[in-house]
């Protein structure tokens, strides 16, 4: 008794008038956009310009689609060029059939052309794009769910995939391992691994991309082994298993050799990008300082000490207060000098003469006090 399973969509295409909207195509397109978005963020963090990843993707994506389709058609040629085959069906990409190996290989050629035109090192670009590629694959695998293809062996686990029968293509209904889901989850894990390792060890010169390739191949080998769709076998193993093993070894070798020959990460990934960013940040900082100065100059509280809000009044009254204090001090000094003279006057002198002498000395006392002040 089937208690639980993952249902498959009844149809993989919806028609909007004469225009067919295919689930497989939508998954591929969404995966590309997510990959470019994440790649752009990582490229900017490494010192590149925003938008460069998308500009180079204009070259990489078409090359990748052609490469993915070529790999599928070459390795599964019977439906197209075998007995009762239909060669024109080889162009029907929307019906499924993209080999990731060919997509990455020829996509790299397109990326190399785009990077060369911009003066950018391809390994640095590949490092920035690596986690985005893994997430794009995770999303793209749901296209196989819409097409009810590339599932695994029969099973009755609760997460089994329900496949409907289709005698026209020889599809037998039942519940199978959802290998598309396994690969989706594995790719998400690969993206997380690359992001973590890149931050922890500052991977550069293509090593983040090599880690992505090696980690993906490790998962693809066991997932491919579970599939039951038709495939060519070599020494008892599916062709894609051998491909995964060979590419895994090559990726590991590149990782090790690159770490010895070019340790660390590239200082400059896009010529002129760091200088432009520094200039923009300096201009923004200067503008902020000017705005801060203007705000300080316009603030009435900066000079309003008595709280009446009148800065002009304060600037006039402050010197006046100082003058009054100075005059009062001078008068007190003169008075003290006068009293001292009166006390020191000779006994034979009349009081009036002593008073006159004190009065005569008063200007001298004031002048001396002024010098002290």
Radius of gyration: 43 Å
Order of strands across the main sheet: 1-2
| Residue share in helix | 55-70%
Order of helices and strands: EEHHHHHHEEHHEEHHHH
How many H/I helical runs? 12
Structural class: mainly alpha
Find the count of extended strands (DSSP E, 2+ residues): 6
Assembly context of the chains: single chain
Low-confidence parts lasting 5 or more residues at pLDDT below 50?
A: 311-323, 344-360, 364-373
Largest sheet: 2 strands, antiparallel
The whole-number mean of residue pLDDT values reads: 83
Percent range for β-strand residues: under 5%
Shape: elongated
Q: What distance separates the N and C termini?
A: 110 Å
Overview of this protein structure:
This protein has helices spanning 23-45, 52-75, 78-81, 100-118, 122-140, 142-147, 179-201, 207-226, 239-261, 273-297, 311-344, 351-372; strands at 13-16, 19-22, 161-163, 174-176, 233-234, 237-238. With 373 residues, it is mostly helical. α1 (23-45) crosses α2, α1 runs antiparallel to α5 (122-140) and α5 (122-140) packs antiparallel against α7. The relative contact order is 0.09.
List keywords for this structure.
373 residues, mainly alpha, two-stranded antiparallel ribbon, 65% helix, elongated, disordered C terminus
Give a summary of the structure in a few sentences.
This protein has 373 residues and is mainly alpha-helical. The protein has 12 helices and 6 strands.
């Amino acid at each position: 008794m089937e208690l639980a399973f993952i249902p498959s969509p009844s149809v993989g295409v919806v028609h909007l008038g004469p225009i067919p909207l295919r689930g497989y195509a939508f998954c591929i397109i969404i995966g590309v956009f997510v990959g470019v978005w994440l790649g752009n963020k990582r490229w900017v963090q490494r010192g590149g310009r925003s938008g460069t990843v998308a500009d180079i993707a204009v070259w990489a994506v078409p090359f990748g689609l052609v490469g993915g389709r070529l790999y599928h058609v070459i390795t599964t040629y019977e439906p197209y060029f075998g007995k009762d085959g239909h060669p024109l069906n080889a162009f029907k990409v929307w019906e499924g059939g993209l080999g990731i190996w060919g997509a990455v290989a020829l996509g790299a050629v397109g990326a190399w052309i785009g990077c060369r035109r911009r003066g950018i090192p391809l390994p640095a670009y590949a490092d920035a794009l690596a986690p985005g590629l893994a997430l794009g694959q995770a999303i793209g695998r749901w296209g196989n769910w819409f097409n009810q293809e590339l599932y695994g062996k029969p099973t009755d686990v609760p997460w089994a995939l329900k496949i409907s029968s289709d005698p026209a293509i020889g599809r037998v209904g039942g519940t199978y391992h959802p290998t598309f889901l396994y690969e989706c989850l594995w790719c998400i894990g690969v993206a997380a691994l690359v992001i973590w390792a890149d931050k922890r060890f500052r991977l550069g010169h293509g090593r983040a991309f090599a880690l992505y390739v090696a980690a993906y191949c490790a998962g693809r080998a066991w997932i491919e082994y579970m599939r039951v769709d038709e495939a060519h076998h070599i020494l008892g193993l599916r062709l894609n298993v051998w491909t995964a093993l060979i590419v895994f070894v090559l990726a590991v070798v590149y990782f090790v050799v690159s770490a010895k020959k070019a340790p660390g990460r590239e200082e400059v990934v896009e010529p002129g990008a760091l200088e432009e960013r520094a200039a923009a940040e300096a201009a923004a900082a200067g503008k902020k300082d000017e705005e801060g100065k203007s705000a300080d100059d316009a603030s009435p509280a900066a000079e309003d000490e008595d709280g009446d809000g009148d800065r002009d009044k304060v600037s006039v009254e402050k010197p006046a207060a100082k003058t009054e204090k100075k005059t009062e001090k001078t008068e007190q000094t003169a008075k003290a000098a006068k009293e001292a003279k009166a006390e020191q006057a000779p006994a034979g002198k009349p009081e009036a003469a002593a008073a006159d002498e004190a009065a005569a000395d008063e200007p001298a006392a004031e002048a001396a006090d002024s010098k002290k002040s």
